[in-house]
Design brief:
Helices cover 8% and strands 53% of the residues. With 223 residues, it is mainly β. It has one domain (26-222). The longest helix is centred in the N-terminal third of the chain and has 13 residues, at 5-17. The two termini are 33 Å apart.
């Protein structure tokens, strides 16, 4: 029986990429992520507050300049008790590159605290203020966008990081947050959320050959 060499090469390529060549489906591998450890913040460590978001009476999130090293750091205030979230941004970061927003993630209200730690290195914290402090913070490297990828009315998170874009999808499953490193899962060189309206992810398995995918039930489906 004569075997078509091109067919063999294409089949191997899809297998190496983690994709099903029959239906152009790329299953994603997910891993559970933990909550960030929060610590009590001594108010004396606060040199000045740069930005603050009031959530409710006695409840707020803020970005402050650390008195010791002038780094921009995040904190939450629960009825006069301050908790340190983590470093949000570098010293002297322009104000338009840091911020605090109230968003909807996984069908829940959350506060998004963001900044940059270097060139092409964004930093984001999500605070789910309805939870206990030690269970309420998740940290994400990269630019993070809240988007309803599967049209269920609840936003997932897509993050991208680096000049050659690496992307992750964050989902909620059985009350736990899981993430998938898309590049690693499917063997892609670059992945970026190209069109937020159409929810299209642009994937490069090789240079100059973009392919478009959508997310569906734990997989990427080729358009």
């Amino acid at each position: 029986m004569r075997i078509n060499l091109l067919t063999v090469i294409l089949t191997l390529t899809f297998l190496l990429n983690g994709c099903n060549s029959k239906n152009n489906e790329c299953p994603l591998e997910f891993f559970q992520i933990g909550n960030e450890k929060v610590e009590i913040l001594n108010p004396d460590d606060i040199k000045s507050v740069v930005k603050e978001k009031i959530i409710d009476k006695g409840v707020s999130a803020f970005i402050f300049i650390d008195r010791e090293n002038n780094e921009l750091k995040g904190s939450i205030n629960l009825n006069g008790k301050y908790y340190y979230v983590g470093q949000v941004s570098m010293e002297n970061t322009p104000e338009d590159l840091i911020g605090i927003e109230e968003v909807q993630v996984f069908g829940k209200k959350a506060v998004k605290i963001y900044g940059i730690l270097g060139a092409n290195y964004a930093q984001v914290y999500y605070w789910f203020f309805h939870k206990k402090p030690e269970e309420s913070i998740i940290q994400i490297n990269g630019n993070a966008i809240e988007i309803d990828l599967d049209d269920d009315g609840k936003n997932e998170i897509v993050s991208t990081l680096g000049t050659v874009s690496e992307a992750r999808i964050y989902i909620l499953k059985e009350g736990r947050v899981y993430a998938s490193d898309i590049n690693e899962s499917i063997g892609a060189e670059s992945v970026v959320l190209k069109d937020t309206d159409k929810k299209l992810l642009e994937v490069y398995f090789e240079p100059n050959k973009p392919e478009q995918y959508i997310y569906h039930k734990g997989s990427l489906i080729k358009k």
